[in-house]
Amino acid sequence: MALHITDDPAADTLLTENPLALLIGMLLDQQVAMEQAFSGPLKIEQRTGALTAEHIASYDPEAFNAAFSETPAVHRFPGSMATRVQTLCSVLVSDWDGDAAALWTRGNPTGPEVLKRLKALPGFGDQKAKIFLALLGKQYGFTGEGWREAVGAYGDEGSYRSVADIVSPESLTLVREHKRAMKAAAKEAKS
Description:
By secondary structure, the protein is mainly α. It has one domain: Orthogonal Bundle (Endonuclease III, domain 1). The chain contains eleven helices and no strands. Helix 5 crosses helix 6 and helix 8 crosses helix 9. The radius of gyration is 16 Å and the shape is globular. The protein starts with 8 loop residues before the first helix and ends with a helix.
């Protein structure tokens, strides 16, 4: 299994090999391009020296914010997102022994149980949790019973709704087209 989300081999390798990187990438995936969000964990690792929940949770908040703000910034809102990443890592340390993968591996959980665990994380609402669970199921080898049902349409085979469906530059284009169409439809519905 190898993820191909960012079009940057080093960032994609980190996402593939480090479950925390994938979780942080998902957290950062708002109000920026998906590639930028999922490239963020590599920038964090390069700027702070490590990408573990313990390292990030214990990092000096001002220094962590500065690392997020270096050009190019990790996110378009570096201050608030640096705080969110540190808060997420603190929860992982206190509740999951610093192991992001435990969210979907500890106790051999079902899809609905993993969805519940994800929604309990700071910064993970219903939609983000469903998309992340779909990513785990479609590309990361998660086979927990009921995961497709738990994520609804994000689990559909052959769909191009979210980052869970990006496996190539072509599929990235299809996901972008789907998102544009959804925004246009929502805008039209309001008028």
